[in-house]
Amino acid sequence: MPSNTIRICGVAYRVVFVTDEELPDDAGQIQSRHCLIRIRRSAPNDRRAEVLLHEIVHGICYECHLPLDEQTVATLAAGLYGVLRDNPVMRFENMRTGEETP
Ligand SMILES: [Zn+2]
Q1: Fewer C-beta neighbours within 10 Å, C or N terminus of the chain?
Q2: Which of 92, 56, 97 is closest to 77 using CA atoms?
Q3: For residue 70, how far is its CA from the centre of ligand 1 (angstroms)?
């Protein structure tokens, strides 16, 4: 099973991609106490990224003891995903600080 690790508020979470049978009811799931994020492997790549960001927002809420309801998490995650996807400047390597030499 392929896996990756991401850090959420300094805590390492393992990200695993699972079959539809392993995760029949959701596109993604976070098990915060186990530092585990599960994402459906069958989803298109951009959908998997959006779902991962959604689960990351849940992880931030858990790690920071910030109780947000599902609708708020979904709205924040969808909004952030759109901003990151649509604005290459949001990738730090593309940001200009004003200190660049011409
Ligand atoms: Zn959710």
Answers
A1: C
A2: 56
A3: 5
